[in-house]
């Protein structure tokens, strides 16, 4: 993944959410995005997922340039998997049906429309459930699950998609420390086993250090540091959360 001089302002906003960001992420690396609320982490992940229009700069994901004016080609979309902070699951469907939804982008448009999966789709979904340790939950409805179980379903759905890039927006924000470590073990382990690149945002520097090979600090839409995890100092992390003066958006500026 290569990002050069990337800037973006949300529609209707005068302030940039991302400002002149440049990053180079080698294939297969696990990267954590750290930064205070409103720093731009979600925006960057959404942009890399091909969901935002009208940005400036150059961005190449999995060897193909993203176009600021149009969404990625349908054929390329399943290569990037996204784990949403709020899971984005179909609450009244079963776990298996949700995980099979991860296969939709790999089906022909007609099959996807009819929701008819092949035996390969089913095998892939079941393997993803097993990898996430929730094979026994396959027939349970999502609305009967705990937060940690839902998070596993969201990751299983992402893995069923067979992505080469996994983007995850605060994947462990609602979990206790032990569950959070389990989920990040799962996410980064699955990415490594598949040779996939992983990028996740977090508010927990300790977990980022433990599970990412590279840590990118963002504040006020800018990259403040971009270092191998072993080079990240406590001071740099502390400063990242102290430095809120440049934060765009309401309610986030340092009060003088
Ligand atoms: N849809 C939107 N419209 C206008 N401004 C937005 C929108 N989404 C985010 N922003 C603004 O863009 C900036 C970056 O927000 P973003 O959600 O990317 O930050 P973040 O680092 O993910 O924060 P958090 O850790 O709280 O999730 C903020 O100033 C925010 O208010």
UniProtKB/TrEMBL annotation:
Specify whether Ribonucleoprotein is a keyword of the entry: no
Q: Which GO terms describe its molecular function?
A: ATP binding; ATP hydrolysis activity; transmembrane transporter activity
**Descriptive protein name:** ATP-binding cassette domain-containing protein
Q: In which domain of life is the source organism classified?
A: Bacteria
A GO cellular component term found in this entry reads:
plasma membrane
Family matches, as InterPro entries: AAA+_ATPase (IPR003593), ABC_transporter-like_ATP-bd (IPR003439), ABC_transporter-like_CS (IPR017871), ABC_transpr_LolD-like (IPR015854), P-loop_NTPase (IPR027417)
Its keywords, alphabetically, are: ATP-binding, Nucleotide-binding
Q: Which PANTHER family match?
A: IMPORT ATP-BINDING PROTEIN, TRANSPORTER, PUTATIVE-RELATED
Show the stretches that span the lipid bilayer: none
Q: Spell out the PROSITE patterns in the cross-references.
A: ABC_TRANSPORTER_1, ABC_TRANSPORTER_2
- Organism of origin: Limimaricola litoreus
Looking up Gene3D superfamilies in the UniProt record yields:
P-loop containing nucleotide triphosphate hydrolases
